Amino acid sequence: MKTNLKHLFNKEIKEGVEILSIGTELLLGNIVNTNARWIAEQLSILGLNHFRQTTIGDNAERLSQLVKEISMRSNLLITTGGLGPTPDDLTTESIAKAFNQKIYARESIWEEIKMKLSQKKPYITNLSLKKQCFFPKDAQIINNPKGTAPGMIWKPKENFTILTFPGVPDEMKVMWEETAYNFIKSNFSDGSIFFSNTLKLTGIGEATVSETIKDLLELKNPTIAPYASLEEVKLRITTKAKSVSEAKLLIKPIKKELKETFSKNIFGEDNESLQSILVKELIKRNESIVFAESCTGGLLSSYITSVSGSSKVFKGGVIAYSNELKHSLLDVPINLINSFGAVSEEVAESMSIGVKNKLKSDWAISVSGIAGPDGGSDSKPIGLVYIAITGPNNKIIKIKKQYNPLRNRNEIQRLSVNDCLNSLRLILLS
Amino acid sequence: MKTNLKHLFNKEIKEGVEILSIGTELLLGNIVNTNARWIAEQLSILGLNHFRQTTIGDNAERLSQLVKEISMRSNLLITTGGLGPTPDDLTTESIAKAFNQKIYARESIWEEIKMKLSQKKPYITNLSLKKQCFFPKDAQIINNPKGTAPGMIWKPKENFTILTFPGVPDEMKVMWEETAYNFIKSNFSDGSIFFSNTLKLTGIGEATVSETIKDLLELKNPTIAPYASLEEVKLRITTKAKSVSEAKLLIKPIKKELKETFSKNIFGEDNESLQSILVKELIKRNESIVFAESCTGGLLSSYITSVSGSSKVFKGGVIAYSNELKHSLLDVPINLINSFGAVSEEVAESMSIGVKNKLKSDWAISVSGIAGPDGGSDSKPIGLVYIAITGPNNKIIKIKKQYNPLRNRNEIQRLSVNDCLNSLRLILLS
Question: Is the ipTM reported for this complex over the cut 0.85?
Fold first, then answer.
């Protein structure tokens, strides 16, 4: 009876999930722990209570001690890191040691690792790679389709399960999606879920957004949380519900209100980007587009071509970094550059007409500006950018931007690209 | 005597610094914990042993419990978050409660807070702001020049000190620099520092690197740690020393050995990138470069133009996404495209010659391939990429790459760009 009671008691206080990130590089501050954030988000989606995250270095003894500690207060532990072939990859053996268990080679996994390596690197014969096929006897393997190090699902004691993942984000994510998600959902979720829907805004600051919807930000279910980055503000609406359809119903009226409030600023939802919605819209219209870039140096084109299917609408572009090429490739008259300078409304306009004619498309965007850190002057400071957009009717829309000159080169390039894309979006909307 | 011994014993096992990040938004995965990385780096610079980082939500009871726990194993705790005016900002009171202490209003700080608010937001009259002036009796205040919430330095028991900071990164950083740095340095640092120097390698995998320098990876001071990303492997050499010059002396022989071992693969150190060293080298040679991009869609150009000063060598480029533009802008013969396909050695070669002639430069790189997820075939699978580099002597170097077809579009584009840049580096080296 006594044991039973104790067992029940333990069961009651032992609930919740923890994340453990393993790697001395994290303690040294060499890298930001993006894995913990990603997993935390996944646990939220599954509606799981997640109380604590810990980061620890590649030290076998401390790691064992910590895992033992966690096994006494939580019932599910997710670890990342330390599954690789190097001597400081100690996760599996240290976890096993915490429960006085040994690890054993699994020959079938070793064969798989060797096969993966022979395709990529036939010359590797490193025996330390074999380490990656050692697991406790009763552990279930999490297959790693993007790398050599598999993870495991292991239940070393009653009411405590560990899932291990490599520290490489891409490997961890695909392993989660292919294997861990379903395992956790069926074994740990109480059936309710957290469901989120994110609205994406641009052309408006976080302070203005927050001020405008002050009251909505106080809501408890759904909650609304704003997150700002350089180019955009996200409004994340989150609700806890029994099903996705119930969640969507709860979110619907809030979403409607936000869409009415920020009608011009909301460009998309969730995984959409300015470039993806533009590609979609241009495909729908059966219209093509080309770019003439100066200060953005190819970044604008790379944004569009990051979208799969962009070749249906994007024909190409010219990066005319030198004045010589602005003339020879885009037919910008030399005297225009001499009179107004390469960074001017006149040259941007001429670049836009030139690229549209030469590359023969329905739409053309040109951009010329001063990204810094050199090249600014009193009359043309760093952050001054001219954009020109020419459409099927050959009407030209000209936009002048002055970004904060204290911003760095990369920020000014990204803000310029964002304004090129958003300006086209607003033109297509109207 | 007994007490004394115990005290000594405690002192011995209780060493090390911990970081505690407080905020439910971290547990929900809403934001990445960049504060922990920044503080970790600062602790490294001060040469302090930092064994553990924890993240916890805005829950008073769990927070008290955790702080008590930490006070038993470490001697310095740095916290961020939970110092604001909202009901879920509970840090100071929860920490005090962990040691059965009360917090009291400090009227002078309250006056200061009110003054700060009247300057910035005269409309705020919220009394809960007063919360921010409550501290334990013997706590020392860390002034917050960028916000309203001060932090504290508090020693609630023998051999345990807590420093609290707000979660807003800009506020935390300036408070660290103005107050905490000196306090920690004079009270906790033994005068030594950690110093790191990172070598960057490409064209070689982490497994091969680790295999080759197995013995070096076992070194204790300096230590060498490998970190891999999609395009590169970093070898970080870290040493603990009395001064930067002593550290550099300790690192020197290791660095020399690594440079000899990986002479072809090491392209730079620390903040250098392939593109930054290429821009530097081309400036030195007074040679210009242009690009003709297909599958990389502008990404190659954007890498070069991310380097400030790149306009000295990069004249521009052509993104010939459509076959039509490969012909009209780069003079690639239509029959060449028809016979061999746009993704072929022949077309890549012709693009490279075309762009060099049209844009008149010393060097030209062209790249054509299949980035996916569509467009692959049995004879030309996703991940097949042709690169051609033409130099001042018009000699053409042709490179064929087959990346793993399971890689996504963005990865194949980034790997292609990396191989374009690295191939040019190797040509310039030879």
Answer: no
